[in-house]
Amino acid sequence: MYYILVYDVNQKRVNKMLKLLRKYMNWVQNSVFEGELSDSQIEKLKHEIKKLINPNEDSVIIYAMEEKWLGRDIIGLEKKEIGNII
Q1: What CATH number is associated with residue 56?
Q2: Which of 52, 78, 79, 81 fits as disulfide partner to 29, beta carbons 3.0 to 4.6 Å?
Q3: Which residue range is the domain that position 44 belongs to?
Q4: Residue-level pLDDT, tens digit, the chain, 86 residues
Q5: Does residue 62 form part of some domain?
Q6: pTM, 2 dp
């Protein structure tokens, strides 16, 4: 399945979150990652996120979608090209 993940975490956890997410997904822009993950990968990632964040301060949203419904338009500067995602 294809996932888009956005996060808002306390500044003291930003670097740890970036390092974690880069192991699994492609960085798109500040606080946004996307990528194809297996069921086991997304469950492992969720588990690691839960260990890292403070649920009283931080927020992580994961959008799951089928590739057949995925479209992507860039307006302005693309921070990092990740290739053809469809």
Answers
A1: 3.30.70.240
A2: 79
A3: 2-69
A4: 999 999 999 999 999 999 999 999 999 888 999 999 999 999 999 999 999 999 999 999 999 987 666 676 766 777 665 554 44
A5: yes
A6: 0.79
